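Dear Dr. H.,

I hope your travels went smoothly. While you were away I took the liberty of generating a structure for the chain from your last submission, since the lab meeting agenda had it listed for discussion. I wanted you to have the full record in hand beforehand rather than looking at slides cold. The sequence, exactly as received, is reproduced here:
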Amino acid sequence: MNFLAQSFSGDLQGFSAILAISLIILGIGLLTTLLLSPFMFILGKANKQAEKYKLQRLNVVVAQYEPPLGLSPAEIGYLYDMKCDNKEILATLFSLELRGVIRLSSESKIEVIRPEAYDGLAEYEKIAIRAVDESASLNEQRPTLPIDFIGPNNEIYKLELPLPYKKSISAFTKAVRGSLKTKNIPTRSFFASLSVRAFIIAVFISLLPMLSAGTPSTIN
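The corresponding predicted structure, in token form, is as follows:
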């Protein structure tokens, strides 16, 4: 009987320890959820506002035929949706063709016809040239984009430009962002700005109970 009692007592103590650990973990989880709930709520509101703002921008048609404020097509493209991809790189190449800096050939090659002008190009413009040139020079099969392009002499080019690699697009985007920063133009997206503000507000709200608990009471 004593052995059974000791065994039962040991099992009960083990169960109590497991229950205590489970309650501690549950309490930590509830406390974490309570502290993070203001941040998640504000972040959700910020996401909805960002989506609403994005839809409003997509539905607006701007009657602007020249890049405003002296911005390039790549910079305008970045400011439109806060990112760059193949279309910004191709727009940069077309702009350089129209400016007489490069020549696009039907063999998907880029020829620099004004070396003196090339040296004065923005960094992202040089990256755009290198990105397509490197993709075209590789032996492996790259996806291409068929384009009908009207040149400066009203000549129609039928091009099959190879799409750049993601690392080239990333470097191009970084260079475009840097160019905009030199012109004192904000490059942070609307959602990112709201997220930072939401995080700061949520942290402050989460710390309020701790600050209140640590404040000595003045009531006798």
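Two observations you may find useful: The chain has two domains: 2-58+195-208, 72-188. The chain has seven helices and four strands.

With kind regards,
E. W.
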